[in-house]
Amino acid sequence: MADVFSKSFTQQEAIDEDTIARVTDILRGGRLHRYNTNPGESSEAALLEAEYAAYQGVKYCLACSSGGYALAVALRASGVKPGDKVLANAYTLAPVPGAIHNTGGVPVFVEVDDNWHIDVDDLAQKAASSGARHLMLSHMRGHIADMDAIMEICERYDICVVEDCAHTMGARWKGTRSGNFGRVAAFSAQTYKHINSGEGGLLTTDDEEIAARAIIMSGSYMLYENHGAAPDESVFAKVMLETPNYSGRMDNMRAAILRGQLLGLDENVRRWNGRYQMLERTLRSSSLIEVSERAQHEEYVGSSIQFKPRLEKAGFDVLVDRCAARGVDVKWFGGDEPKAFTSRYDSWRYLGEQAPLPKTLAVLGRTCDMRVPLTFDVSDCEMVAKIVVEEVAQVANQHSL
């Protein structure tokens, strides 16, 4: 009888007892709002900002309500106006085009390559021809592209890079932390990300005016001194009367939950990568499954894995169903309609008709995806990958190339 995997792909690890105790203290004290502090007291949100800025190695950090909010504020604070074109990789998740739409920007999607990175050649062509002055660069599903080439293109055309680091918190490229290449970056603390407060976001930058605008936009009510990693008050004085309030603050409970997890983030990166590497090795044992090589200088966080079965299109839905019957949750990005988080650029019809991107569609037509929860151990990951290998072989027999 075929093995069936019994653990959930959506179960997170428990919050540690020290953090639970701290959250309980906050609830008993009633001071949940980040600006509701006693004289001389730093809120949990301010402490998180200081600690994350130190972890990331940047000057400024804003804790806010979600990663998607951080993306939109990063675009607005860096100067995107209604009607402005914004370059963005076509393989991304729905909050990215949503953030561009939120600002009134117009996305110009860039092809992706066979390894799920933004296609550097297409980026260069569209940077030259589109007139865009911003690039929303998603390190989608944790894959970091050639940042030397990307930054050279963006410097050549005076394009401001906004990094979407929802899947690369803790990752590096040639020793530089993801998020520290562009002018501003956004990170997510949604429940399936590298630190988990259910929902939450962080914005980081070394640009003092972007930081000041973002803090005002988050709803600071001029309480700038109550932030943990903010520019001098003189910077706020230059921008405060021309910057709107969009109210997207983080509360103290979520900040306390994240502070506890930040302490263990680097160890969790090590744990994720051990699980990822077992999945990778086992999937590669099949000649019917392609798993891309990661660049040696890419220090990734393996919280999800992508692979390409060598199947006809008709076989992918069958594969997803067969894996599900054995307890393995595989997502496919090639379906005609979006399912769960698998929407594509041609799914976001509110943006209007988009130029065809045949390379992206071809890549996503073969792309399967699995989460790698830390509630799995390494042997679980071996079992999961073996089930996928077996089911790909079964489907290939029915839907041969």
Task: Give a description of the structure.
This protein is of the alpha/beta class and 401 residues long. The protein folds into two domains: 17-262, Type I PLP-dependent aspartate aminotransferase-like (Major domain) (Aspartate Aminotransferase, domain 2), CATH 3.40.640.10; 265-398, Aspartate Aminotransferase, domain 1 (Alpha-Beta Complex), CATH 3.90.1150. 39% of the residues lie in helices and 14% in strands. The chain has helices at 17-29, 44-56, 67-77, 95-103, 120-129, 147-156, 208-219, 233-239, 252-262, 265-284, 313-325, 358-364, 378-398; strands spanning 60-64, 85-89, 106-110, 134-138, 160-164, 172-173, 176-177, 184-188, 201-205, 289-290, 298-299, 304-309, 331-332, 368-371. The strands form three sheets. Strands 1-9-8-5-4-2-3 form a seven-stranded mixed sheet, sandwiched between helices. A four-stranded antiparallel sheet has the order 10-12-14-13, with helices on one face. A three-stranded antiparallel sheet has the order 7-6-11, with no helix packed on it. Helix 1 runs antiparallel to helix 9 (252-262). The longest helix has 21 residues, at 378-398. It is globular and about 70 Å long.
